Amino acid sequence: MDEPNRSRYLKSSKAMSNPKRHHFVPESYLKGFVDDQTGFLCVYSKNGKIWRRQKPKQVMVRNKYYHQDWAPESVDKNILEKTLGSDTEPKGLASLRKLVESPDTLCDDDVARILTYLDLQRMRVPRQADKAKHIAKAAISHELRKTSIGRDVLRNNEVGIKDNFRFHVIRQLAGASIPYLSRMVWHVVEAGCGLSFVSSDSPVSNGVRLHSQIS
């Protein structure tokens, strides 16, 4: 992006509202799982082991989740949240709807938007951020244990990973899964009569199917 366009984009972003509650799973995606008559989601909490009914705007959100206090004065501290809400999410979901409703009209741009949406959705959730912090903490602790000084430090201290580390992870891994996603064989599946799909707070995740061997 050239500098003049970038300047205009930053100005337009600052002119937008600054939401404090940021969805790590898009509200527009969650609306696809609501009860058609009430507009509520049926949510199950694994921690509390309870069921509750909530609106999409109330779930899978965290206060200032994408806010970056350390950004320079010339950069909107909510630029990531605004970019997701105005570009990545609507374009990706629109292409996904096209894939379901009119697959014959799907173009290369739609495929690119879907892959970008899936790649970013996989990395942006708290579960993935916590996993990255855990790996980083374990790696640093492992290196410290290799020296006597490091072992002495760990006796009375522990390694801490700042929250902004997850932004570095997203930046470094952005696009890493796209080559794999683009080579997968995809199928559009429709729920059976009287049945519904479920989602989670980590709707795009890696999985391995195990095939049992028949002798």
Characterise the protein shown here.
This protein is mostly helical and 215 residues long. Helix content is 46%, strand content 7%. The strands form 2 sheets. A two-stranded antiparallel sheet has the order 1-4. Strands 2-3 form a two-stranded antiparallel sheet. A hairpin with a 4-residue loop joins strand 2 and strand 3. Helix 3 crosses helix 4. The longest helix has 23 residues. It is globular, with a radius of gyration of 21 Å. It starts with a helix and ends in a 33-residue tail after the last helix. The N terminus and C terminus are likely disordered.
Please state the oligomeric state of the protein chains shown: single chain
Helix content: 40-55%
Structural class: mainly alpha
The geometry reads as: globular
Question: Could you describe the largest sheet, including whether it forms a barrel?
Answer: 2 strands, antiparallel
User: What is the string of helix and strand elements?
Assistant: HEHEEEHHHHHH
Count of helical regions: 8
- The proportion of residues in beta strands is 5-15%
Mean pLDDT: 87
Write the layout of secondary structure elements.
Blueprint: H1 3-15, E1 21-23, H2 27-30, E2 41-45, E3 50-54, E4 61-63, H3 79-101, H4 108-124, H5 126-144, H6 148-156, H7 165-173, H8 178-182
Antiparallel strand pairs: 1-4, 2-3
